[in-house]
From TrEMBL:
Protein name per Swiss-Prot or TrEMBL: Insertion element IS402-like domain-containing protein
InterPro entries: IS402-like_dom (IPR025161)
A matching Pfam family: DUF4096
Residue ranges occupied by any Insertion element IS402-like domain in the UniProt entry: 15-71
UniProt organism field: Streptomyces luteireticuli
Database matches in PANTHER family: PHP DOMAIN PROTEIN (PTHR30007), TRANSPOSASE (PTHR30007:SF0)
């Protein structure tokens, strides 16, 4: 079961439904091009991961304080690191 935004209070930094509809196709396409090696689909909805990244960027809190659920912050950090590595490889072949 995916953990979704409806299961917690909304934060001011959360994506609006309209903003999510704008970026959802980009995230969905990215996920289709980068499937999990293990085949694991993940526990957290992509919208929640984006919300965690936005919250972190807005508040500058430490990743470990993002969620009382273990794993959410690690997934956000992992995704950011993967994107940064890919960008670096593209720019520095």
């Amino acid at each position: 079961m995916l953990v979704d935004v409806g299961e917690r209070p909304a934060y001011p930094s959360d994506l609006s439904d309209g903003a999510w509809e704008l970026i959802r196709p980009v995230i969905t396409a990215w996920k289709a091009r980068h499937p999990s090696v293990s085949g694991h689909e993940g526990q957290y909805a992509m919208r929640e991961i984006v919300n965690a990244i936005l919250y972190r960027a807005r508040t500058r809190c430490q990743w470990r304080y993002l969620s009382p659920r273990p794993g959410a912050e690690e997934r956000g950090v992992l995704l950011l690191r993967q994107m940064a590595r890919r960008r670096h490889r593209r720019n520095h072949p």
